[in-house]
DNA sequence: AGAGTTTGCCTAAACGTTTTATCGCGCAGG
DNA sequence: CCTGCGCGATAAAACGTTTAGGCAAACTCT
């Protein structure tokens, strides 16, 4: 006995040991077909003793089934995204899927390679935040291979399922809040390219500005991290010293902006109000705690997962779009407007 | 023409269109074997037109080659980890690997399921931060299946390759720095379980305490996030009001601690000094900027990837251990010791 | 007891590749 | 004119599964 001791155990190994045929082993392990109690026990025993682990690749190849899904995200370092992914994983792992994540860093070429790889390696479904300048050809690629795909956050193409945030509604909410507090000169800070998300958010902001007849809109660019937010805020105040409120494109920028204010001796929530977006963990523990627009990332994650599962089950449904409303969490970085004397400010 | 229009194109489709055999197509696409210029051109053409994408699963099954590697990490929300992963991906993607990430959230059961899944799905290599209470059986599982594996950060088992940080050296550096500034009552804050990492760090801290004859060591628990760090710091000061310096288990905790100090009207870097660990992005832009121990996460990432590649190339090498030294970045949360009058403190 | 049904297992084929061995062919050398 | 050889391509086998179909033996029913 012990012909081929080395090498990983396969169905054939188990079959040989047990003295039954390969399909029988397969059926026992998967609980299909008619099998006598006796054989079942023998097989299970042998499988356990050999530490047999099925080769999912071979299985998938034959059966077409595919329980591996890919998450393609633009920036894993962003805590909001990371939490969305958490929610996704929760639900999908419960359904027996293996979720594997990949970070495009908003580079369309990298993204293309990664998607190609996902296709080659046979992912059964995709959750995707399209990179900034995703070309049309990338969508064609996915369409050609008919992989069930749900985009999220960035709503780029209507042919795919989508889960997102009611961005315009959210920023309108924030801007209204500020207007109600008496602010009349309100800027929008954050984002760089005119991404779809940002476009929507700015639209919401501008609608309130013009609806309330406030000072003309002022949009200022910034990358999505604290340091950039800090620098941008300083520049912005230099440009518009009479500013009393800012709606930010994300919490990272908002927190950076607060740091900038502190550095200039201006108190966030007093002389200048700041509203963030995302409600990342840090927002609640910052000093002062950040007023922000909150959409539970885990909820988005679960919604995403559910949408993908539905799509996998019925690939021919018309595309679905779900948009979740944001909630305004009023903390301490917003307060009644206090007219500002545009003071001369020096660095540091 | 157009027998089977639907369905994904395979080698056989391309072969039929071109009028050559399947192996010929395979050889052309992979650049092996002897092929005439004429056929080569024909095949490439057809492949392109059909949008043919090789089925990597089938290929891997036949050839045994395996260009998919898995990253198993304990907490993706931690920015340090996320940056390590960035470094890994950089290098491995260049080598034609697909890197997929999975988050255990330090749950050993989940980790087990995920590793099982990785084995079933045939990952060719693993980069792994073992979860807190990883049982021995998990290591057996990996050993049985002989998957090239490199652990990082948590050095749990000597039979596997490892890339880590010289933890004891690092905290000793920090503690020495504080002692040099005149501090005599220095606490260690952060971490909960006695993980290997934490054990090493505390050892480094204690060695300096006893070497310099300072006040006896004081170790205080905290989860690894800002809020927990904040609460822990308050509790710690309550316990030891004469404290003048803290070495922290991570930047998140350290930043939380600084928030706590600010809340109590104590200036970090003046009345109480704080040293962090990791140098996450926030550390540099915090107010005041955090003195911290820095190990370039991307460097770790690249080292990790390199180690794994070596291991895959030669599976029979004896296990390798690489440890990177941390560097002390002195910013503004540490300063000369000022004797503290243990003031009565009330909440908020 | 014979016909029909159920039970328990097996054989054969298929999934899409890669690999190994082989084959026909034209050509150079003896 | 036969032999040997390099070239270009092919046929067949293999990877580890799952699925469909089949076939004896053991039951059930009249």
UniProtKB/TrEMBL annotation, chains A, B:
Q: Which Pfam families match?
A: LacI, Peripla_BP_3
Native organism is Poseidonocella sedimentorum
InterPro entries per UniProt:
HTH_LacI (IPR000843), LacI/GalR-like_sensor (IPR046335), Lambda_DNA-bd_dom_sf (IPR010982), Peripla_BP_I (IPR028082)
One Gene Ontology MF term: transcription cis-regulatory region binding
Matches recorded under SMART domains: HTH_LACI
| Keywords carried by this UniProt record | DNA-binding, Repressor, Transcription, Transcription regulation
Q: Does the keyword Transcription regulation apply?
A: yes
Q: Could you tell me what this protein is called?
A: Transcriptional regulator, LacI family
